Amino acid sequence: MLNGCGEPNAIFLTEEESTNESFTFPLHMNEAKCNKCHGLEVKVSKIGELRSHNVGKDCLSCHSIEGAGRGIYTVAGSVYKPDGETPYPNIKVNFYPRNNQLENPVAVLEVDGNGNFYTTKEIMPGGKGDGEVGLLYPSVVTDHGEYSMPVSFSISMGGCNSCHGVDVARIFAE
Ligand code: HEC
Ligand code: HEC
Ligand code: HEC
User: Which residue's CA is minimally distant from atom 15 of ligand 1?
Assistant: First the structure.
């Protein structure tokens, strides 16, 4: 039987850990493999929400089957203002099937109040794309315009912040 939260024999926080209030979840497991059990939960970023953290880091390094973050993200990242330092909250990221913005996006993700976007959903059902299976073209949409990635993105590349902020500039928009 699963040792769920609220069980009398749940593992409670030590006094030292309980002063860390960045997350208010009952730490019922003292192991990090949350997604062995919670891996099917649906988590999607929403405009205005402030649940996320670690802006600029590669979310998928933790929000994965083996990682410590709940939810197995298929796509996640962070958007900044042109200074590359100030997070850009409450905008959208579109995913197009081709290297133009003529067709409807295959998926649209909302960037939350911290400048982060994430989803556990399969955003390429059927693997639609530019002839080659599994390719999409992301772009960031703001009131000032649309800022597109000139090359294709594939889910197998991992998190957006595994390139952006590492070997290319952070994702930015005006
Ligand atoms: C062995 C399986 C298992 C593991 C591992 C596990 N959980 Fe849970 N968790 C459960 C069950 C079962 C429940 C209670 C069912 C429910 O409320 O949906 C639960 C409930 C919760 C809840 C309260 C309900 C909710 O969704 O808000 C939180 C928060 C939570 N777990 C976080 C975590 C975190 C963080 C980790 C990793 C440190 C973790 N869990 C690891 C099985 C597990
Ligand atoms: C170093 C590991 C790590 C990184 C990197 C990381 N997270 Fe987390 N994340 C965690 C842990 C641990 C928790 C707390 C346990 C939980 O609820 O998943 C958490 C919790 C969260 C939550 C709240 C849980 C919920 O209800 O959905 C969100 C949202 C979140 N992370 C989003 C992100 C985003 C977006 C990124 C990238 C910008 C990111 N995380 C990067 C480890 C990480
Ligand atoms: C494999 C590395 C890689 C990954 C992963 C990646 N990108 Fe990019 N991205 C690039 C490169 C290279 C450029 C072109 C940079 C340049 O022109 O200087 C770029 C440019 C962009 C641009 C246009 C410049 C800007 O910041 O406005 C956007 C928008 C963008 N990417 C969004 C994303 C999003 C969203 C994701 C995740 C879904 C992502 N990228 C994943 C490599 C990557």
Answer: 4
Q: What share of the chain is helix, strand, coil (3-state, %, to 5)?
A: 10, 20, 65
Cα-flanking dihedrals φ and ψ of residue 38, to 5°? -95, 10
CA–centroid distance, 149 to ligand 3, in Å, is: 5
**Domain identity same for 24 and 86:** no
pLDDT at 15: 39
- CATH number of the domain within which 157 lies: 2.60.40.10
Closest residue CA from atom 31 of ligand 2: 52
Q: In the chain, which residues have pLDDT < 70?
A: 1-32, 125-133
Same domain flag for 7 and 84 = no
Give alpha helix (H) positions in 33-142.
Answer: 35-38
Backbone torsions φ then ψ of 53, nearest 5 degrees? -165, -170
Bridge partners of residue 153, in order along the sequence = 136
The atom of ligand 3 lying closest to the CA of 117 is 35
Note the pLDDT of residue 3: 40
User: What pLDDT score does 134 carry?
Assistant: 74
pTM over 0.90: no
Interatomic CA distance for residues 62 and 102, integer angstroms: 35
